[in-house]
Amino acid sequence: MTTLEVRGLTKDFSLRSGLRQSRFRAVDDVSFTLTPGRTVALVGESGSGKSTVARMIARLERPTAGEIVATRPDGTRVGDRDYRDHVQMVFQDPFASLNPFHTVEHHLARPLKLHGRTKGREDTRRTVEQLLERVNLTPAADIARRRPHELSGGQRQRVAIARALAPGARVVVADEPVSMLDVSIRLGVLNLLARLQREDDLAVLYITHDLATARHFSDEILVMYRGRVVERGPADEVILNPRHPYTRILAAAAPDPEARDRDRLREALGLEPAGGSTLPGDDPGCAFRDRCPSAMEICARRPEDVAVGPDHHVTCRLYPGDGRDARPAGDGTTAGRPA
Ligand code: SF4
Question: Sheet harboring 3-17: ordered strands across?
């Protein structure tokens, strides 16, 4: 079993526009822990920084600051060489993540061999079939011979999940694993992830914009806005009793499985179309204050993390430090709150 600690993770990017070069902070001082058998959901809109967090954990991006530490049950730190044995990623687009020229067997046999999980051809073939059976792809021998284009989107994502398990991973980062799948098969893939987690005691980071599935499949939820975690807590508590104005708006818009709902949400938040925003990371105040219905003068100074309940934290000036709301109910921030 592996525990993964993310401490103070920060990522800056450079942007060039003509002769001008600027920097923006995509991820700002994010910390959390992934423990065996538990799922943490990272929730937020496009541009919130959640996928950048995933890419840093998967070592596809290098952090500007902070660290990611994987630890074995005996307390020893997982070194660079073994890191990928322990931590694997499931990407959003199962078609792009699989090479169209190779068979399913090739995709699964490769990590098995690379990570020394099998000995010889027969052992590899048998293990590939076992992996396919674990993700409910049967008859396994037949599926193993196919290429990605001969599979449905759901089947391809199941192959991607099997590939993540092939090296014996104990930490799985699932970045929007069902958002590109047909609505009718999303639940099946999420249930599969949940079953595998129980069977293998996996630590899972589930990245999504969908609060409804985040609540159902996670133990803890972290809400990100413009690179910062603005609220965190037990999944039920964050969804049923959201405290940050941004979380309240998100919760009021959930469930949100379709693109038109996302557009409605973006409209409600006054956000630019997806992919069109850049984020000023050096902004000293609350990043949400331009759109917050409860913004106050003091919000021009960066809010601190405040406990508002057992394991429930929020980064907002509405909470003076003792968990009380500094504003009377009905001032606008409660308008979007679910009944
Ligand atoms: Fe709104 Fe101020 Fe809280 Fe930011 S700190 S969410 S602007 S009330």
Answer: 20-34, 3-17, 65-71
